[in-house]
Amino acid sequence: MINRIQVTTVFVSDQDKALDFYVGKLGLEKKLDMPMPQFRWVEVSPAGAETSISLQLPWPGMSVQGGPSGMIFDTSDVKGAYDKLAAQGVNFTQAPTEQPWGGIEARFTDPDGNEFSLVQRTN
Fold first, then answer.
1. Does a structural domain hold residue 72?
2. Alpha-carbon distance 62 to 47, whole Å?
3. For the chain, how many structural domains are there in total?
4. Which of 48, 54, 72, 123: CA 20 to 30 A from 5?
5. DSSP at 58
């Protein structure tokens, strides 16, 4: 049976630029950077996380379009994270806002326009 989610993918237009953003600004760790004959496999994740994000170039016939990724990053201090990341130049599309489900959510984009949620659960 399924035990866990190992890797999820975010499509990017430039893997080096994406690494600068995800590692340099978001503070994730580079877990893997493996050149292969046809492509390069790059993974990042929060320290100690079991699930990684693969930063991949679009497959043939595909384009990077940005938009909601459906990915949610968890934090214990959304306002503090928002202030720190915004000061580092991260583009937020929504400031920390109380949500009807009881948490606080902010939203930001990466350099390719992929949108992510940053959530603090309060209950």
1. yes
2. 31
3. 1
4. 123
5. P
